[in-house]
Amino acid sequence: MSKDYYQILGVEKDASQEEIKKAFRKKAMEFHPDKNQGDKEAEAEEKFKEASAAYEILSDDQERAYYDRVGSTKKETGGGRQRHSGFENINFNDIFGSNAGSSFSFDSRRNPGYRPSMQPDNRIVLNCSLKQIISGGKAKIKFDRKTSCSDCMGKGVITSEENCPGCGGNGFIQEARSNIIFRATCEKCHGYGKKSEKCGTCNGEGHTSSVEQVLLTVPAGIPPMTSLKLEGKGNTVHFGTNNQCVIGDTYIVINYQNKEDGVVINAGNIYTSVTVPFDLVLDNSEINVDILGKKKVKFNLDHKKRSGHNYVVKGSGSTDKNDAIIKVFIDLPQKEISEDKRKDLIKLMRETYGKPDTTFKPATNIN
Fold first, then answer.
1. Which CATH number fits the domain 260-353, given the four candidates 3.10.310.10, 2.60.260.20, 2.60.40.1120, 1.10.580.10?
2. Tens digits of per-residue pLDDT, 63-94?
């Protein structure tokens, strides 16, 4: 039984030629060696050949009809022309446009260098708790700093003026397979095009590493994913034709979940809720709300406010420019009271508020 060519291209059996062409174009770009470096390159090439074979069959009306009818290709049943690796008969100009040239080029060269080029700036994520954000304070952090090797200027290799014999000074090896050109970084010169050998000073790493430790001030109420800059605490790198030396910066990204133990911080404001006894509300008592053991919010209750009212306490957020929003629920007495006291309480409430209506409508917002 032949492979399922429709499944390989990801199209339905009634797909049009335009849909088949579009699907193959997508697969060809997906398995391009530039996008599948290292260990994935061989697998990607095989996948490309597989997709090419599928397209070669399905783009030919006669071949496709035979495949649909028999379930195999003519070659597999011995009734058709000899095929090779799956893409010799494909017109890549038709697939990718005239700018594809006379052949479809797969260039797997990376940026030249024995090691990937090092960036001057570092970016580190510091995970904080909401307690730290509410109170602010100091955080001790450690991170690696890299210094570009001064002997090889960060390349990891020492190059000479003589062209590499492996690639003739091109920096890459080119191989033509049918009408597809594959290019790969020259392993002898690592893409530089010159005779080269691994740098003995840095052992080919292109840099040395050291551990930096700093005591960072985390401002109270800082928004999540905010970056704090440590100037001059980045990597030391060489770049450009003049091998200019540059020292970068390190950016500490403050990350935290904005909800913890019933407390939420949003735009510097603190949100939480408490349940208080009924008599404290009647007495307009002053209460303290402990925010995660790091901040106390003090305000007076108001007996005129209903249960679930949001009290806004100005200047009591994570900074004095932010607010605390406390939702207060009223707790009814839990202990049993005598019948006489219960009736006295009902009488007092009815004298104050009047007799309540006993017919209710459903709430429009259910939380």
1. 2.60.260.20
2. 888 888 877 776 665 554 434 444 445 555 55
Other CB atoms within 10 Å distance of the CB of residue 79: 11
Q: Where in the chain is the domain with CATH 1.10.287.110?
A: 5-104
Mean pLDDT score of the chain, rounded to an integer?
80
Query: Which tokens sit at 131?
Result: 């307690």
Give dist(CA 149, CA 333) in Å, integer: 75
- In the CATH scheme, what architecture does the domain 118-155+219-256 have? Sandwich (2.60)
Q: Which residues of the chain have pLDDT under 50?
A: 1, 80-88, 98-116, 366-367
Token output for 357: 């209506």
Taking the C-alpha atoms of residue 12 and residue 19, their distance in angstroms, rounded to an integer, is 9
pLDDT for the residue 186: 81
Contact criterion met (CB below 8 Å) for 321 and 220? no
Q: Do residues 106 and 196 touch, judged by C-beta distance below 8 A?
A: no
Task: Give the Cα separation of 166 and 223 in Å (integer).
Answer: 54
User: CATH number of the domain at 5-104, please?
Assistant: 1.10.287.110
Per residue in 297-330, pLDDT (tens digit) is: 999 999 889 999 999 999 999 888 999 999 999 9
Query: pTM of the full predicted structure?
Result: 0.55
Instruction: Indicate the burial class of 247 (C-beta count within 10 angstroms; 0-12, 13-18, 19 or more).
Output: middle
Residues in Cβ contact with 94 at an 8 Å cutoff, skipping those fewer than 6 apart: 21
> In the chain, where does the domain assigned CATH 2.60.260.20 lie?
118-155+219-256, 260-353
